[in-house]
């Protein structure tokens, strides 16, 4: 199966700015702790917006909520994008959604598989997890550092499962995980997938930066597997249950509870109610 290489990926790249940072090369590591860590390091050294860090394997890949992101060699796409958004801080959560839209479009364009987006950062296929997004703002923009004059960095880390053998997956996750080649039944080229991801992320990011976040929300809704579903969420110490009815204009999830109250969730994890009444 095709492997990630900087040369091949860059030959497919058709972005204007992402992956084309002036005088700052993209990176591909054979092995690294976490591409998000590396991107944060580069940001602290003053790397400009647009740098892409990717790796064939990660030794401490991170998911949300302190979870581990298993990253065996060539089993997935592991990539981080360094951005320096200048829009209002209230829109920061929108970047996770924008990145989800970009991933859904890239996968569709690259291999013709339609994935779903589960609020806030999950890439899913038929309820199984295909990938996820980890957005982080490293605290390194203090004045006096190399990046003092630049807008604060935002790292968007994306993990997409490409090919896995069930033995690599911990038993308790085995029937909750999906990978692209199981859907396509043929090899997926990570270089093409990454080039499409960068292209669509650039498009969605441009929308946010030019004040068109409503378009990103529209795009997200087209892939949503969350809206209209019954969900359960932990919110400030208590559990809420209700129907996910809409997204707010900053990307929050609006939930209508049984007594008709509307609550907007801004972060955290939700579970979607399955046909058998269980929450997954
Ligand atoms: C999640 O669903 O919990 C988010 C998973 C994000 C994984 C990616 S892989 C590339 C980047 N580097 C990391 O350590 N994590 C993200």
What does this 3D model show about the protein?
- The chain is an alpha+beta fold.
- The protein is built from six helices and twelve strands.
- The chain has helices at 6-12, 35-44, 92-111, 180-184, 190-209, 213-223, and strands spanning 27-29, 52-55, 76-83, 116-118, 122-125, 128-136, 154-161, 230-235, 238-247, 253-257, 262-265, 270-272.
- A seven-stranded mixed sheet has the order 1-2-3-7-6-5-4, with helices on both faces.
- A hairpin with a 2-residue loop joins β8 (230-235) and β9.
- α3 runs antiparallel to α5 (190-209), α3 (92-111) packs across α6 and α5 packs across α6.
- The longest helix has 20 residues, at 92-111.
- It is globular, with a radius of gyration of 18 Å.
- The mean pLDDT is 94.
- Biotin (BTN) binds next to α2, β3, β6 and β7.
Structure described in brief:
The chain is an alpha+beta fold and 280 residues long.
